[in-house]
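worker-03 picked up job from queue 'complexes'. Input manifest follows; two sequence lines, order preserved.
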Amino acid sequence: MALPLPQGLVPSEVAFLCEMELVTVVPRQRLESIELLSGSTPRLRPPHRADLPFWLAILLKKQRRANIVPPAWLHPDSLREIVTYETAIDVKDWAPPPPPPVRADGRGNSTRLNPYEDGVILSPPFLPSCTAAAPAGALPYHWFELAEMLLAHASDDIPSASEVRSLLRDLQEARAAKMRSKVTHPESHGEGVTSLRGVGAMELAESRGFVTGVAEGIRKIGASAETMRREEEEENGQDMDDDLSDDDMGL
Amino acid sequence: MSYYDVDAILTDGEKVPCRFELDVPYLGHLDNSNGLKPGSRLALPLWLAEMFALASAGEDSKPPLTLTLPPCLSEQVQAALKADPRAVALRDQSAYFYGVAVRMLDLFDERELSAILRRTFVVRAADVGLHARKAEESGLGGQGEEFLRGLDEWERRLFRRGHEGVRGAKEWTDNVKKS
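worker-03 finished. Artifact:
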């Protein structure tokens, strides 16, 4: 029998990974740099903002030693914009993920901002997708977990937290309905291939069981038809070979 | 499918209608007669019927019995599924509807049936997913409950999987608020 553990990550594991994201804090007290496995944190001096790992930011917030600056996409206006996108503009696909950070030069070109060498393509959690510099109007990979944890631990730092909360519920429902309709209309998206671009980590953890279940069911129902089709194809292929050899003989 | 899969074993035990082609003298107790005559009809469990239907004694001898589609896959049920997959209570047809159907598809060359089943599963899966998500909020009732009672074993398993995922995320969200 299979392991009793479910496939993939469970919600608490997803949330644990989310705590690695960088968030921006406004410190209230000085704090020297701390050596962590992921690198050393910046030195905190009160009026200056600094980017810290999310778990450390929550810890400092709980001790009232820092305030968290919520990312721009968590603002009610940005969330409302995304809800409009999800419900009115594109009713099939999810809202696109945030664009990679770019820097514009004076001549109208833009280049990808990349602190590492060229050729390294960054993805979450190494992209600063939840700091104050994150773009508005797009949900990063860990949007749901981060928003929930921020609302739970730092709701006084978020402008109009109750509105944000209700907008998050709307988003969650709208996007879950999309997941269901995508999975259960495999024909409408071309040969059973479905793009999950823009889906968050928690949403994946939530619907993994259902999605794989549906796919497995479809596969089992189609299995005999599939073997038949393969056999036919093989036979046809042989026929074609025969024809070719006949032609060769004729020549 | 695992060897110890209870659902697979129970699917094997589902009865399918068969017609004997041979004279079997000493099995009359199966249909309360003096012996099975060629042409007598009998419902046998799937595992036994399948073995007989595929077996043959010699070069050109017929198999001892012929299989027919079970009543849960009859023309009427197929027509009803074609009309509206959601309106049919699959569990009333057979608790292992899809399991039996897939085994039948292996034995019979029924393209149309395969297409109908596929559509049925997909359309009903959308509803199953919706119910799996809303199960706790709406507290089950009315038409929803009626629908859930009509799910066969495959769909019940799908419901459980979907519900577990939703519940896991919900539990986590509630825990974050508490801590």
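worker-03 released lock.
The longest strand of chain A covers residues 22-27.
Chain A has six helices and seven strands.
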